[in-house]
Amino acid sequence: MSEPLAPPPLTNDCFSLPPGTHWTPVSEAHDMLRARLSVVVGSETVALDAALDRVLAENAFAQRSNPPQPNSAVDGYGLRLADTTEGPNSLPLVDGRSAAGAPYHGQLPEGHAIRILTGATVPDGVDTVILQEDVTTDGAQIAFHGGLKSGANIRRAGEDVNAGDVILPAGRRLTPADLALAAATGMSELSVRKRLRVAVLSTGDELAQPGEQARADQIFDANRPMLLAMIEQFGFEPVDAGRAPDDRDQLRAMLDQAAQDADLILTSGGASAGDEDHLSALLNESGAMTLWRLAIKPGRPLALGMWNRKPVFGLPGNPVAAMVCTLVFARPAMGALAGEGWQMPTPLMLPAQFGKRKKAGRREYLRARLQNGAVEVFASEGSGRISGLSWAEGLVELPDEAQDIEPGTPVAFYSYASFGL
Ligand SMILES: Nc1nc2c(c(=O)[nH]1)N[C@H]1C(S)=C(S)[C@@H](COP(=O)(O)OP(=O)(O)OC[C@H]3O[C@@H](n4cnc5c(N)ncnc54)[C@H](O)[C@@H]3O)O[C@H]1N2
Ligand code: MOO
C-alpha cells in the first residue's frame, strides 16, 4: 500500500510568493535589460516635414542664429537713445521704413527716427525702438516722452539660438516644436534612426480573429490590436505577425517569419509553464531564454529570449498583464533598441482616493484615473478585465515595500500619455 499523497497548504493566491523561488524585482529586471540592449537600427536622412516622431541619430547643430539679425519686437519707431532726453522729445522721421522682409538699406542719420515694423531688421544706427502707442506723429516727425531703456523692443541676433549651438541631442524623439526650432535655425533635413520594427504575435487555440465566427469556447484576440496600436503610438513600426495555434511547429514557423520581418518580437500568451505554453518551451529550446518570475502584479510571468538573433518578449496572455508588461518593460527596451535610450516616465505624486493594504515583496500596478486631482482605481484587479484598461487613464504604481494606503496617501500616477500613448 502506498502512502496517501500529502497536499500542500492551500494558498489560493496565485500571487503569493512561494519560498525558495527567486522573484526578480522590477528594478533588477530593468537593470538586466538595460545592460543587455543596445541600438539595433541604422540611420537615414529625411526631410524636415517627414521627421515628426522620428528619433535623431546625431546631435543637430544650428546652421544659423535665431534671429539671424537684430529685429524689432514691435511696430514703432527706431532711434538712437543718445538723441533723446528725459522729458518730452521730438525727432524728424527719415523717408522710408524698415518692414519684415523689406529692410531699410542705409544708416539712420543722427537726430532722426525711422518707422519700423515687427520682425523688421533694425537699421544701422538704431539702438532702441519706441512703441507706436507711445508716440504721436504727423507723418514728418514723432513726439514722445524720454526715459527709454537702451535696446528696448529689439530682439538681439542669436538671443534665442547661436549658429553652431546643439539645438537637439541625438536620441531625441522629434516633436512639432523641435521641427520649428530646426527650421528656424536653417535645417532642411535631419539624420534620424530607421524606425524600429516590432512584430506582434498572439498565441493560443482559444483565439478567434475579430470579425470571424467564434466558437463558444473561443475568445476574440484582444491583445494583438492593442499591442499593434501601442507600438504605432510609441512611434515604432508595427508588424502584424498573426495568431499562432497551440502547435509547436506552426509557432516555430511564425516566429521565423516574425524574426525576418522585425527587429523585436512581442508575443502574448503561453509565457508561463503550463502544458500548452509552447512559447516558453520553444525559447527554451533555442537556448537563449530567461523566464522571469517577476515580483510584479499583474504580469508575473515574462519570458525573454532570442529567436534568430532577434529579442523576444513573451508577454503574459491576460490583457491587463500584457499591457502593463509592455509599458513597464517592453517600452523602455524598445527605446534602447531604437536609439532613444532607456527611458521611464516620471510619475505625478497625487493623493489616493482609495484605500488598500499592500503586502511587501512585489510592485503593483492598478488601473487608475484622475478625479478632482486625486487618483481613483478600477473596482477590480482581475487581470482579464479589459474594461478597466479602457476605463483607466493610466496606472498607479505601488512600491515593492508594504504600504497601507489610506485615502489621501500620495501615490505615483503614470498617465498613459507619459508612456507615449
Ligand atoms: N497555477 C497557476 N496558474 C496561473 C498562474 C500561476 O501562478 N499559477 N499565473 C496566472 C497569471 S498571473 C497569468 S498572467 C497567466 C499567464 O499565462 P500565459 O502567459 O501562459 O498565458 P495563457 O495561459 O496563454 O493566457 C492567459 C489568459 O489570457 C488569455 N489570452 C491569451 N491571449 C490573449 C489574447 N490575444 N487576447 C485576449 N486574451 C488572451 C487566455 O485566454 C487566458 O485566459 O497564467 C495564470 N495562470
Ligand atoms: O501576470 Mo497575470 O495577472 O498578472 O495576469
Automatic annotation (TrEMBL):
Keywords in alphabetical order: Magnesium, Metal-binding, Molybdenum, Molybdenum cofactor biosynthesis, Transferase
GO cellular component, one term: cytosol
Region (Disordered): 63-82
Cofactor(s) listed: Mg(2+)
The UniProt record lists the keyword Zinc: no
Cited InterPro entries: MoaB/Mog-like_dom_sf (IPR036425), MoaB/Mog_dom (IPR001453), MoCF_biosynth_CS (IPR008284), MoeA-like (IPR038987), MoeA_C_domain_IV (IPR005111), MoeA_C_domain_IV_sf (IPR036688), MoeA_linker/N (IPR005110), MoeA_linker/N_sf (IPR036135)
EC number(s) per entry: 2.10.1.1
Metabolic or biological pathway, per its Swiss-Prot or TrEMBL entry: Cofactor biosynthesis; molybdopterin biosynthesis
SUPFAM superfamilies: MoeA C-terminal domain-like, MoeA N-terminal region -like, Molybdenum cofactor biosynthesis proteins
Record-annotated MoaB/Mog domain positions: 199-336
GO BP, one annotated term: Mo-molybdopterin cofactor biosynthetic process
Catalytic reaction list: adenylyl-molybdopterin + molybdate = Mo-molybdopterin + AMP + H(+)
Stated role: Catalyzes the insertion of molybdate into adenylated molybdopterin with the concomitant release of AMP.
Name assigned to this protein: Molybdopterin molybdenumtransferase
Organism placement in taxonomy: Bacteria, Pseudomonadati, Pseudomonadota, Alphaproteobacteria, Rhodobacterales
